Amino acid sequence: MKYTKKQGQYLSFIYYYRKLNNESPAHSDFQKYFVTNPANVNDMLKTLEIKGFIKREAGKARSIELLLKRKELPDLQ
Fold first, then answer.
1. CA separation (Å) from 2 to 14, 23, 26?
2. Using CA atoms, how far apart are residues 74 and 38, in angstroms rounded to an integer?
3. Could you say which of 20, 49, 65, 71 is the most buried, measured as most Cβ atoms within 10 Å of its Cβ?
4. Are strands 54-55 and 65-66 parallel, antiparallel or unpaired?
5. Which residues form the HTH marR-type domain (predicted)?
6. What is the pTM of this model?
């Protein structure tokens, strides 16, 4: 399983956000943390889903499911 450094950071963010908040992050949470725009967040989440790192339910908010274990993730920076 290979992911880029930025993809790894998104995956770690999902892991820790869920751990702290008991729900998946919303697009706006990614935008605030990574200081980016909605299009970039959407593109990244699509890429992570295509690569099989996450699963989402279409039309359902906060439905991101991480398909990797903690030991497979980098530390969040």
1. 17, 26, 24
2. 24
3. 49
4. antiparallel
5. 7-58
6. 0.94
